[in-house]
Amino acid sequence: MATDIFEYATRNKIRFASARGELSIEQLWDVPLRSKDDFNLNTVAQTVNRAMKAASEESFVETARTALHVKLETTLEIVKHVIGVRLAEEEAAKKRAENKADKERLLAILAEKQAGKLSELSEKELQKRIAALEP
Question: Is residue 124 part of a domain?
């Protein structure tokens, strides 16, 4: 499905309205998920969603999907796909950072335990180990 919507978008030269002008699909990947101004993926999705709702209100009698409906639905699906991928990447980066912090804590605890075991060795055992390390 994802390749179908991207093929449709590229063949129909779909652009995405943003606070900084129209964006191509490639540029959409560079838009932040969140921002303090209105230049973010959420605002892009909301803009498309509003346009889709406005297009749906054109007629209550004619229920057939027009080319505009297809275009807007595809546009929204693309933005939602990009948001989903970016959220997954964000979550993966967060998990990697948490794992790294956990590993560092565990290594510090391990170093303390190893140092504790070394401090329990007798003077004779320590000298023997030091001598073994010298060439």
Answer: no
